[in-house]
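Postdoc handover notes: sequence design on the structure in folder B. Input tokens:
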């Protein structure tokens, strides 16, 4: 059962007892939380009547601490805690990090056949000329790595299909050195990402599966047809789409994933978007102020065609 259709109804039923400061909005898009970790603050905010669930992140390493030994207790526990409030859980399977101190892949992948499982990822403004490592990216272009990753996806499906509302794979944007022994190329990364997404959609029968798409390496403004080909592929393979950043009318996004999210809104199983911390800090060029809650919701719903918006916990309206 895909639960999407019942969400607005649930929202309207719940809205009956909403306190004055949380007026029902005009929006049919569902509002969820986004957090790296379901802590006490997240659990408190989850009680808000307009919030229907929470998206949280789980690293590959935490889910598979030893080869073939899965530890899904964190997801199971979070599922219990969200369900006990009558809310949903969404899982982002994190295969990258934004800190060099934390490598997201299991240690057993640190072997030549897996190219050590991950490579440094640049987090600067000029990665092409000045590659400063700011985290790690999993070598999903390596078929041996993908084979291990897909095994994890299958185990997650056996454990949580129909229990966790949706699963997503992280954004397509990546900045790694192409001239290393890791075997990375834009094309292999593109193909590997699509392969994982289709595999995920094939093993989950009931939970939603979403690939986050923002930018493709070697794919700016649909270079190499990466953007158009990927959305076509997701539609053909039952993969939902989404993105980490809802920033209304942002030019770089308009040149990349946004028009495709809009165009494919009725061709993919689900379309979701997050408002993460940097999006809250972005300035609306029309008002010179940060975007308002309604501006974020309107853009996500009407322009992108999203059905769920994931708010960072720091969104001011969650604290009013
Ligand atoms: C609903 O939409 C109307 C028209 O766009 C607007 O005037 C009104 O403020 C909105 N109400 C809420 C609760 O957002
Ligand atoms: C979740 O709750 C069920 C029953 O309430 C319990 O049997 C199970 O052990 C709990 N799981 C976790 C991970 O807490
Ligand atoms: C893998 O790690 C070893 C030890 O840290 C290092 O010497 C080697 O260059 C790495 N290989 C790749 C492909 O990154
Ligand atoms: C999905 O459905 C297929 C076919 O009925 C079944 O073999 C498979 O076990 C199901 N997967 C899950 C995770 O339930
Ligand atoms: C990549 O490595 C090859 C072979 O060592 C070299 O010819 C080429 O110039 C390098 N390309 C870049 C972008 O550094």
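Designed sequence:
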């Amino acid at each position: 059962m895909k639960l999407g259709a019942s969400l607005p109804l649930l929202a309207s039923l719940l809205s009956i007892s909403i306190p004055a400061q949380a007026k029902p909005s005009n929006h049919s898009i569902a509002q969820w939380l986004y957090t790296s970790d379901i802590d006490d603050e997240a659990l408190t905010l989850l009680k808000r009547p307009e919030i229907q669930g929470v998206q949280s992140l789980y690293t590959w390493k935490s889910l598979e601490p030893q080869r073939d030994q899965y530890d899904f207790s964190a997801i199971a526990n979070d599922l219990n805690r969200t369900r006990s409030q009558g809310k949903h859980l969404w899982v982002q399977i994190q295969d990258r990090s934004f800190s060099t101190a934390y490598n997201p892949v299991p240690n057993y992948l640190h072997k030549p056949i897996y190219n050590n499982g991950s490579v440094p990822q640049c987090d600067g403004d000029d990665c092409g000329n000045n590659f400063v490592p700011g985290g790690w990216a999993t070598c999903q272009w390596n078929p041996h790595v993908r084979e291990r990753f897909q095994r994890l996806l299958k185990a997650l499906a056996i454990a949580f299909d129909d229990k966790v509302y949706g699963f997503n794979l992280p954004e397509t944007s990546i900045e790694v050195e192409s001239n290393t022994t890791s075997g990375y190329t834009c094309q292999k990364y593109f193909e590997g990402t699509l392969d994982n997404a289709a595999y995920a959609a094939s093993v989950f029968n009931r939970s939603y599966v979403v690939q986050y798409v923002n930018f493709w390496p070697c794919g700016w403004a649909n270079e190499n047809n990466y953007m158009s080909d990927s959305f076509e592929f997701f539609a053909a393979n039952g993969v939902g789409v989404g993105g980490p950043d809802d920033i209304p009318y942002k030019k770089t996004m308009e040149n990349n994933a946004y028009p495709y999210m809009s165009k494919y809104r009725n061709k993919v199983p689900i379309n979701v978007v997050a408002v993460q911390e940097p999006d809250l800090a972005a300035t609306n060029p029309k008002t010179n102020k940060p975007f308002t809650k309604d501006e974020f919701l309107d853009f996500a719903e009407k322009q992108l065609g999203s059905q769920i918006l994931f708010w960072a916990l720091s969104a001011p309206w969650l604290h009013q």
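Context for whoever picks this up: Residues 73, 76-77, 80 surround 2-acetamido-2-deoxy-beta-D-glucopyranose (ligand 2) (CB under 6 Å). Don't rerun without checking with the PI first.
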